[in-house]
Amino acid sequence: MHEPILSVRGLTKTYRGGTRALDAVDLDIRKGEIFALLGPNGAGKTTLIGAVCGLVRPTAGTITAFGQDLASNWRSARARIGLVPQELSTDMFETVWRAVAYSRGLFGKPSDPARLEEILKSLSLWDRKDAQIRALSGGMKRRVLIAKALAHDPELLFLDEPTAGVDVELRKGMWEQIAALKQRGVTIILTTHYIQEAEEMADRVGIIQRGRIRMVDEKRAMMERLGTTEAVIDLAQPMTAIPASLGAYALELADGGRRLIYRGGNGEGKGRAAVAQLAQQLTRDGITFTSLDIHDSSLEDIFVGLLGAQGEPA
């Protein structure tokens, strides 16, 4: 197992007044992965990012990045980390080019106009390079934040709600940019309210709630273990009771006996296989049905279910 690019141990942040934003968080991030950190508002996502990026001073715990303790090697490690913040915090009267060039110089990188041109073109900002940031749309401003974060070629990139307030078309364009960054070897930690983003892109998913990491797993493994399949079967003739021959399936009758509902298995195969066997059994029993609709759990279904089980709405 390779040494993680980022390792957090016992990270705690208690604010004056007693609010505990992070509660003994342990987390390892693997080099080259896209890691999605999910949680409701106030769960601690932004505080965790702020602690790694030097914006929040932890109350306790250690952070190791690139094999270096951030407490004693903060400047050299921070120069290898990029952050796209949630808030649109930049000089609105600055031009796109100057803002991005300044960010590169801020981390001690030599001037490289060709590299900045490459970054701006990749984000469809090149034709707006001389525009003041205040003149850009919300989506374009967010792209400028990404360009600024990429200007010093970070190896570890934090994206805190990168597509908040961005329309669907721009959001998909940013997903493509994130995938391209991964191809270049950049490790990406993403927080998002759009759980579809995590489902689309993440290799692993972590769920944080009330400052604690509740679960970390491979996205596919999480969906296989916690996902379910639901099948709704509309019957040609209503039933008064479920026949004994169907007793092995997790079934319930609905809509006055005109509908059978199956819930079970998981969303990656077992549930669908059970539904296929159920359909064959119905046919053998001479029970005709007019439609069969199958739905597999999404990552969002799992996320909402987990937080609901913990007693907190998503």
From TrEMBL:
Gene Ontology terms for molecular function: ATP binding; ATP hydrolysis activity
InterPro entries: AAA+_ATPase, ABC_transporter-like_ATP-bd, ABC_transporter-like_CS, ABC_transporter_ATP-binding, P-loop_NTPase
Pfam family, one: ABC_tran
SUPFAM superfamilies to which the protein is assigned, alphabetical: P-loop containing nucleoside triphosphate hydrolases
Keyword Transcription regulation: no
Superkingdom as given in the UniProt entry: Bacteria
Domain ABC transporter stretches: 6-235
Entry coiled-coil feature ranges: none
Alphabetically ordered keywords of this record: ATP-binding, Nucleotide-binding, Transport
Name the record gives this protein: Multidrug ABC transporter ATP-binding protein
